[in-house]
Amino acid sequence: MSYHDPQSVFRPLHQEGRKQSRVALSMDITLGSSSVGRRKVDLLDLSASGCRVECHFDVEPGRHLVLTIPGLAPIGCEVRWRRNGMLGLHFASALHPSVLDRVVAQACNRR
């Protein structure tokens, strides 16, 4: 799946070792759990199986969280890594391609 934007705002990020390409975007979402609370974070890239967010609160790898993207049901995820104010998250269930397309379109419309 590839996304083309005339201004190259959203482009697939091809990274070696990844099973799926990620789409670069920027969107305010909510991340949290009952133990860490809910916080707004910036969604930086997205694939069907996970995402990267900018996050400035202390969450350790292995922690289970809930990600909320406006207009979608909450998504369960696990923190895979944390560094430089960012978290790598893996979704409990992969996003359907149409849901991924919808989120990318939604991010594009907010610009």
Can you describe this structure in just a few lines?
This protein is mainly beta and 111 residues long. It is built from one helix and seven strands; from the N terminus they run E-E-E-E-E-E-E-H.
Descriptive overview:
By secondary structure, the chain is mainly beta. It has one domain: predicted glycosyltransferase like domains (Thrombin, subunit H). The protein is about 10% helix and about 45% strand. The chain has 1 helix and 7 strands. It has one helix spanning about 95-110; strands at about 10-15, 20-35, 35-45, 50-55, 65-70, 75-85, 85-90. A 6-stranded antiparallel β-barrel has the order 2-3-4-7-6-5. The protein is globular and about 30 Å long.
